[in-house]
Amino acid sequence: MNNEAVLEVRHLKKYFVKSAGILSTLLREQRKYVAAVEDVSFSINKGEIFCVAGESGCGKTTLGKTILKLLQPDDGQIIFQGQDITRLERDNMRMLRPKVQMIFQDPYESLDPRARIYDSIAEPLMVNHLVKDENEKHNKVIQTLQLAGLTPVENYLYKYPHNLSGGERQRVGIATALVLDPEFIVADEPTSMLDVSVQANLLNLLRKLRREKNLTYLFITHDLSVAYAFSDWLAIMYLGKFVEVGPTAEVIMSPIHPYTKALISVVPGINLSKNIKPIVLPGETPNPENVPAGCRFHPRCYCKEERCTKEEPIMTEFTPHHYAACFVLEKMKLKENGK
Amino acid sequence: MLFDIKDLQVEYTVRDSVARAVNKVTLNLAGGESLGLAGESGCGKTTLGNAILRILPEGGQIRGGSINLNGVDLVKLSEEKMRQVRWKEISMVFQGAMNSFDPTMNIENQIAEAILIHQRDTSKETALERARELLPLCGINPLLGKSYPHELSGGMKQRGCIAMALALQPKLLIADEITTALDVMTQAQIFTLLRDMKRKFNLSMIVISHDLAVLAKNCDRLAIMYAGHIVEIGTIQDIFDHPRHPYVKGLLFCIPNFAGGREIIPAIKGAPPSLLAPPQGCPFHPRCPIAIPKCKTAAPQLLPVNTNNHSVACYRKDYKDVIWK
């Protein structure tokens, strides 16, 4: 595997302005901001699958959209294939668009109901002026359909989305992303609305495409078991921040952060003999408008200390390439090393 | 036996055609037992749940069979009698129920209203009192009783729905995809609550979900549906350790899990059949790699394979070799 970083994200931040009422606008009260992505850094090498997992509202989708510049980042850097694209203007970004594509969550909403499958897939080619004539366009669409596993193609070309099942629609969604021969794909919960047998087929397709086209993925999911089966790297996100990053198998099998541990323990695994005792966290994820002081996880943490309520821990490398942000475990590690 | 369904058939009439959503379903449930009902979308699991309470949407009708609750056949009851069974004997928490609260009414009033509707001789005060008792039982701070639905999180609203469903101490609770829209942590909280309730009130439960792993952790027995049929039913151990139906074997392969290798095995190809034009014979035969000619002509019966109530509807249930790879 070559070690060329396709994407590098440094200290990325994305804030949303909390919509203010008319009164506070008149009184010129200071605007309130909600941090959806707070200081996130990572890099993805060519041909790798980097997975971001977390509960709803943790900022994982915002992260994906910000990286693709569908949302404008507020701070930090996004470097794609060595080029800083953070401040790239719309026109220059357009040159880059074909290389970076997104697969959306909802196959029922993301396709134009009035466009035939052929037109949906051909549209990106036209927009980007990538084909010279009808013949070339036709060939490219057919090739892409085959690649996405929609065969025999004649059965799909002139159908409308409502003629297709959920799994088939998602394959069309993948095809519209693939038609431009992208190098990097952000897949935002691409299988969460599908049945398990369909999900398995789709994940397998995405893997096959990586093998054949050396694609790089940022895969966003709430499902840790899917992340485990599918990705090379796994980041666990909580309230806008990464709390743990590492090689997927290591994060799942020997998690460090208390949040990761709890999350893994409640994923209903189907192996009954090896029952991990579930750590059911009390309460709910805090509102991102009011992020707790200190470690943002401390109000729900089962091994917190005094220090956690005041200072915010930073990412520390525990084992090679495996990082987590936690004081308590850091101390335990120091103790172990001291012995 | 508390509850017992025999040869239940439910059909939907869609324009001129008929879709048989529940086909000759037979199952039973003891007091205090929880049965998981699993299957992919469109397999008829929600229809089965709705049929038990006789709240099928328009066009849906029970076409045969019986639903016995303590010896009373619910299919034969008058609508008035059935109304007395709902909520008092059997209640239900629906998929997306948390979004079905009246936005203009606070939680404790809504729970009280449910009590008043189904138990007309109760006074408003008694009902409210009962509602306030239920809240902490379901893990809701009683102070939140005055909150309106928009002030509560999804998990809290779902707890409210459970409180409402348990208001009249039913014997059977049907939970239809109650955690599908919730995060894993909230899901774990909700199921911990349901398990507590089951123990405390000796409640029987039918838990409907597409997620086999959730059911494995939270139920005693499991029934797998495919295209309106129950194809396999048994204890969790029987189904997960010794599955006999090729569909169930394939389904277990498809679920990514921490214990298995880090592989995704897209076992079952294709899609379930349309219920408007189901295949002849076994509904699974077009996708089954070990189908024999007999499978194409006559649907197999659900027959026991051991003394432990493990039953399978498959002619090839004794096939030992690897089917999926």
Order of helices and strands of chain A: EHEEHEEHEHHHHEHEHEEHHEEH
Round the mean pLDDT of chain A to the nearest integer and report it.
88
Structural class of chain B: alpha/beta
Helical percentage of chain A: 25-40%
* Shape summary of chain A: globular
Distance between the termini of chain A: 37 Å
Q: What Rg of chain A is obtained from the alpha carbons, in whole angstroms?
A: 22 Å
Number of domains of chain B: 2
CATH-level-4 superfamily name of the largest domain in chain B: P-loop containing nucleotide triphosphate hydrolases
Explained architecture:
The complex is a heterodimer of chains A (339) and B (325). Helix content of chain A is 34%, strand content 22%. Chain A is of the alpha/beta class and 339 residues long. An eight-stranded mixed beta sheet of chain A has the order 6-7-8-3-9-10-12-11, with helices on both faces. In chain A, strands 2-1-4-5 form a four-stranded antiparallel beta sheet. In chain A, a hairpin with a 2-residue loop joins strand 9 (233-238) and strand 10. Chain A starts with a strand and ends with a helix. The mean pLDDT of chain A is 88. Chain B folds into two domains: 3-219, P-loop containing nucleotide triphosphate hydrolases (Rossmann fold, 3-Layer(aba) Sandwich), CATH 3.40.50; 250-312, no CATH class. In chain B, the strands form two sheets. Chain B has an eight-stranded mixed beta sheet, with helices on both faces. In chain B, strands 2-1-4-5 form a four-stranded antiparallel beta sheet, covered by helices on one side. In chain B, helix 3 (107-118) packs across helix 4 and helix 4 packs across helix 5. The longest helix of chain B has 18 residues, at 184-201. The radius of gyration of chain B is 21 Å and the shape is globular. Helices cover 29% and strands 23% of the residues of chain B. By secondary structure, chain B is α/β, with parallel strands linked by helices. At the A-B interface, helix 8, helix 9, helix 10 and helix 11 of A face helix 6, helix 7, helix 8 and helix 9 of B.
